[in-house]
Amino acid sequence: MNDAPCTTQLLRSVQDALSLEDVEKQKQIAQFQSSARMKAVQEWWEKLQSQWAETEGELLREWIGFAFLGACVGYVERNLHPLHPEHQYIYKQIIRDVTDVFQTLHDQKIEYDPNYIKYQVYDYGVQCIYYLDWDLYMSKECY
Length: 143
Prior knowledge:
The protein is mostly helical. The chain has helices spanning about 5-15, 20-35, 40-50, 60-80, 90-105, 115-140. It contains six helices and no strands.
C-alpha cells in the first residue's frame, strides 16, 4: 500500500470534516449499532488495542482508537480478518497517518470540531481497509 494516498486522503477528510452532515453520521452509527456483526467488531477492536496502547497523549490515543474501530468495521464489511498476516502492515500506517494529522493540527494551532475529527479518523480506518481489500485481493481478480 502506498503511504502517500492514505495520508493525503486522511488530510483531505479532516479538511472536509466541517462539510459533513450530521444525518449521514447518525445513519452510519445506527447501521453499525443495529448490526449483528457488532460483536465481531468489538472483539477485534479489543484484540488490536495493544497496537496503540503505548501511544503518548490521551487525545491522540483516542483518535487512533477511532481509526482502529473504523478499520474493524471495514474488515467486517469486506469479510476480511484483521489478524491475517498480510493485513498487519496497515496498523503502523494508520497510527503514523493519524499521528501526522494530529501533530499538524496542533503544531499549526488549527481549530477543529473534535466530534468531526473523531468521525473522520473512524472513516479513514474504514477506507484504509477498503483500499487494503482492493490492493491485496480485488485488483488481482479484476486484472
